[in-house]
Write a structure and sequence with these properties.
35% of the residues are buried. The protein has a single domain, classed as Arp2/3 complex 21 kDa subunit ARPC3. It is globular and about 55 Å long. Strand 1 (25-27) and strand 2 form a beta hairpin. Helix content is 80%, strand content 3%. It is mostly helical. It has helices spanning 3-22, 40-50, 52-70, 74-100, 106-136, 139-150, 158-187, 191-204; strands at 25-27, 35-37.
Length: 205
């Protein structure tokens, strides 16, 4: 791994950790225990600048520091799963687009990456949430039921609570991909950044 790439990993992982320490998060109104985490933004930027491996390493470092600072494993691990699945969706989508098209338009491939990131993130987090809510920590399903009931939703059965929770969590993850990617969307309009991202995607996907 090149020295510059290692430096970028350290820089962007450090930014994510700093944002986490500062607590820059926006609660999701429907299920407030879910929060839009601005710390994802540097990881997404790093993916497009340096590729999947660099962003995965940076997110792993962020996850370790998040686990240490929060003093528990489950929440940070669910966040880790969310981000890595999104990055995986980005990578698969970019690789697929490169194989089927010789017309390498960055704006188009960026939107395709978002679509893939959303799809994989929603699928993986839905499976993970089913395991957590039904097996690992069923008390969270009860808590979600209270929150949904306060909003006027029917929570007469555990199945109803589970389905509603999965639906609103999926919506949260869809929105989060856009939140995490918005800065990169504007950065790729700069000629220097655009050239860097195109080169990286052509070499690493």
């Amino acid at each position: 791994m090149k020295t510059r790439k290692i430096a970028d990993i350290a820089l962007f992982a450090g930014l994510s950790v700093a944002i986490t320490i500062l607590g820059i998060e926006i609660p999701y109104p429907i299920l407030p225990y879910l929060k839009f985490d601005i710390a994802e933004i540097p990881i997404v930027i790093l993916f497009f600048l340096e590729g999947f491996l660099a962003s995965f390493v940076a997110e792993t470092l962020h996850w370790i520091m998040l686990s240490i600072s929060r003093g528990w494993v489950l929440g940070p691990f669910m966040k880790f799963i969310s981000i890595v699945s999104m990055l995986t969706g980005f990578w698969i989508s970019a690789k697929f687009y490169k194989k089927i098209s010789s017309n390498f338009k960055l704006e188009k491939i960026f939107l395709i990456c978002l679509t893939g990131g959303i799809t994989i993130r929603v699928i993986v987090t839905s499976i993970a949430n089913i395991i957590v809510l039904l097996i690992i920590a069923p008390q969270f399903l009860h808590f979600a039921g209270i929150l949904l009931s306060n909003l006027g939703f029917s929570t007469s059965s555990s199945n109803a609570i589970l389905i509603l929770t999965l639906i609103f969590t999926a919506l949260f993850n869809i929105l989060h991909v856009f939140v995490s990617s918005i800065i990169m969307f504007f950065l790729i309009k700069h000629p220097i950044v655009k050239e860097k991202v195109i080169t990286q995607l052509q070499e690493n996907t």
